[in-house]
Amino acid sequence: MMSDVFYYNTHLHITTWVIGIILFLVVLNLLKKSNEKAAKITHMVLRLFYLFIIITGALLWFNNYSQAGGSLFTESVVKSLAGVWVIGAMEMVLGATKRGKSAFAGWLQLIIALILVLALGFGKLQLGILP
């Protein structure tokens, strides 16, 4: 039963962040095309998905890593913090783009945080795809 709960929690979490990334790209495209109203609405939907991402990630963490010990616990906390960093970097990119300023710092942070999250989530942590 627990593996079923984990299975569905994991897929829900992955689905929410895939939709979040797609929405991020849509908002970015709308901002570049100066479609303010559509960008604002889509950005609010994206922010709702940030909440879904955080909630599903917290459920995964509490169900699978909160009782873990040693390096596994530490890596799961670092992955969680890096996930929040990804969300913050996405907001930095969108904010700078909306104001017409350089988004280089946001993009750099987004790339670094995303690599860290993917490496820990799919590779290093026990529930990833690597042994």
TrEMBL record:
Keywords assigned by UniProt, alphabetized: Cell membrane, Membrane, Transmembrane, Transmembrane helix
Annotated Pfam families: DUF1516 (PF07457)
Cellular compartments annotated: Cell membrane
Protein origin, superkingdom: Bacteria
Keyword Cell membrane: yes
Transmembrane segments: 12-32, 44-62, 77-97, 104-123
Name this protein carries in UniProt: UPF0344 protein SAMN05216362_103104
The species this protein was found in: Piscibacillus halophilus
